[in-house]
Amino acid sequence: xxxxxxxxxxxxxxxxxxxxxxxxxxxxxxxxxxxxxxxxxxxxxxxxxxxxxxxxxxxxxxxxxxxxxxxxxxxxxxxxxxxxxxxxxxxxxxxxxxxxxxxxxxxxxxxxxxxxxxxxxxxxxxxxxxxxxxxxxxxxxxxxxxxxxxxxxxxxxxxxxxxxxxxxxxxxxxxxxxxxxxxxxxxxxxxxxxxxxxxxxxxxxxxxxxxxxxxxxxxxxxxxxxxxxxxxxxxxxxxxxxxxxxxx
Amino acid sequence: xxxxxxxxxxxxxxxxxxxxxxxxxxxxxxxxxxxxxxxxxxxxxxxxxxxxxxxxxxxxxxxxxxxxxxxxxxxxxxxxxxxxxxxxxxxxxxxxxxxxxxxxxxxxxxxxxxxxxxxxxxxxxxxxxxxxxxxxxxxxxxxxxxxxxxxxxxxxxxxxxxxxxxxxxxxxxxxxxxxxxxxxxxxxxxxxxxxxxxxxxxxxxxxxxxxxxxxxxxxxxxxxxxxxxxxxxxxxxxxxxxxxxxxxxxxxxxxxxxxxxxxxxxxxxxxxxxxxxxxxxxxxxxxxxxxxxxxxxxxxxxxxxxxxxxxxxxxxxxxxxxxxxxxxxxxxxxxxxxxxxxxxxxxxxxxxxxxxxxxxxxxxxxxxxxxxxxxxxxxxxxxxxxxxxxxxxxxxxxxxxxxxxxxxxxxxxxxxxxxxxxxxxx
Lengths: 248, 426
What we know:
heterodimer, A: 248 residues, alpha/beta, 5-stranded mixed β-sheet, globular, B: 426 residues, 4-stranded parallel β-sheet, 19 helices, 8 strands, 10% strand
C-alpha cells in the first residue's frame, strides 16, 4: 500500500510517501498563508492509495481530502519508535507547541503532556527572539552554542521575553549570551515537562526545533539518558502518520 | 431562545434584567446549544422535552416562577448540592439553581474580585452584575454555603446587592461535624419558615423527601442505562438532564425523565445506541459543569468517544444517594436529610477518599476505557485532589487525562488535540 502522511503544522507542512513501510520520498514546505494549497500540491505530487493527516491542520485536511486523521502525539510516537526501536520517550518542539511523550511497546503512547494555551518555548518563540536580537534563526543557535555563559531570562511569555530581550540589548549586553540564556530557559522548561511524564532514555528529540544545535546540546546535557536526533527531525510526524495507516 | 410564540420582554423588564445584554446572551446560548446538541445523531426522542426546556429556559420556566411568586410563593436560589431542596420544598417554596456556566461580564466582576478566581464564581457574579440571570432575579433569597474560600467571600459581595443567607458546611465528617451540620440544617428550617410564613410539618417534609428522591431515582435510571454498550444516550444529553434538574418543576421533570429512562431501557434491550458498539468510553470526574457549560463533553464526543458518566456535582453526586424515607418524626427526617447531604463526596472535605472510591467504582460499573479528570482553573480543591485521583485510577489499570480549563474557548484547539491523543491511547 502506498501511503501519504501529511503533517500540517503551524509553521511547516511535511510530507512522507511510504510504499509498505519504506520511505520513498519526503518533502517540507512553509505553511505560509495558504496551507490548503501547499498540502494540495503534495497530494498531487505523487500517486498514493491512502492519505493520513496529522498536526494542527489535520481536521481541515480531513474535510478537504476526505482522509483519515491522527493526532501529532500518536504520530510522533509511531514515527520515533520506527526510526529508533529502542526509544522510550519523545520530545517534539514544533512551531507552536511542545509535546513530551512517554512510550510503551511498539511506539504506543503511555503518557504525554502538551503546553497549554501559549507558544512559550516553541519554534515561534525562537523566531520572535531571533528578530529581537537581530540574528537569523541559524545564527542565533550558533551564537548560543558558542557563548560561554547565558544571561538568565526570567520570562517565558513570548511578549514579556521579547521586552526583556530588547531591554538587555539596549543595556549593551552581549547578544550571544542573551541567545544562550533564552535557549537555557527553554531547555529548563522542557526538561521539567519530561520529568512530569517520567520520560526515560533513550529520548528521541524531533520537530523543527531539533534542528537547532544549541537546543540539542542543552537537552542532551540536562536529560538523564541518551538523546537521539533523527536526521530529518521535521518529518517524524508525517512519517508516523503514514505508519499509522498501516496499523489501522 | 428563538421562535418564541410569547414575548417575554415585559416579564424580563419587570424582573430588572438588562434587556439588550440578555437578548445577546440568549442568542449566544441558543447558538451554543444548536452546535453542541442539535448536531447529534440518534438522540432519544425523550430529549425533545429537554430541547423544549432549553428553548424556554429563560421564558416559560421564568413565567412559572413569576406566577408562583405572584400567588404568594417564594423562590430560593441555590448554588450548590449541599443546600437541601427537601427543606425548601417542605416549606412550600421552590428551589432553583443559579446561572454560572458561561463567561459573562468578567470586566465588571474583576472590579470587585481577583482575576484568578474560578470561572464558576466569576460567572455567577457576572450574571448578577450584568443583570442577565432571571433565576437570581426571581429568587427571594439566595442560599449560599461555605464550600470553598472563593464562594464564601463571594457571598459577602453578593449579600450587598441581593438577599443572601449562608449555611456553614463542616470540612470534616466526624460525629461533631455531623452534629454541627444538623444544627445548620435546622437553621435553614427556621429561615425557610420565616421567609415563606409556612411551617414545615412531618407530612410536608415526608412528601418533599419522596418527591426529590423520585427525581433522583429517575436520574439514576438514566445513569444505569448508560452502562450499556452501545450507549443509549450521549454524555452531553445525560449532562443536560442533570443540569436541568436544578431548575425544572420537580414532579414534571421526574415524569419526563422516567419516560426518557423507559426509552433508554428499551434501546438497551434492542442494542441501539448513539455511538457504535465499541466506541471509546470515558468517565469524567471533577468540578461541576453549570448550564450551559458543555465544553469538555462536546470535545470528547465530537472526537468520536462517548461520555458514560459524570462523577461530579452535575452528575452522580447529585443523584446517587437518597434520603431514607422511613423517618417517623420531624426530627428524624431532618437528621436523615442532613446525613444524606453530608455523604456527598466534595473536595471541600478532608479527607475525601469517598470520591476516589466513587470514581473507581463508576469506571468499572460503566465500562469506562479511561478517565478524564477536569478542574476549573483556580479551583484549588479539585486541582489539589487531581494527583490522588490520577494515582488511584492508574492503579486500577485505567489511563487518565488531567485537564485544567475555564469557560473560554481559546484552548479548545489544544484541548481537542489532547483529548484525541488520549482517545487514540485507549
